Amino acid sequence: MTANTLAGGTFTLTDGLTVGRMGYGAMQLAGPGVFGPPADREAAVAVLREAVELGVNHIDTADFYGPHVTNQIIREALHPYDGIVVVTKVGAVRDDQGAWVHQRSPEQLRAQVHDNLRNLGVDALDVVNLRVGGGDDGHSAVPGSIAEPFAALVEMQQEGLIKHLGISTVNAEQVAEAQSIAPVVCVQNAYNVAHREDDKLVESLAAQGIAYVPYFPLGGFSPLQSEVLNSVAARLGATPMAVALAWLLQRSPNILLIPGTSSLAHLRENVAAASMDLPADAISELDAIA
Question: Does residue 171 sit within a domain?
Answer without folding.
Answer: yes
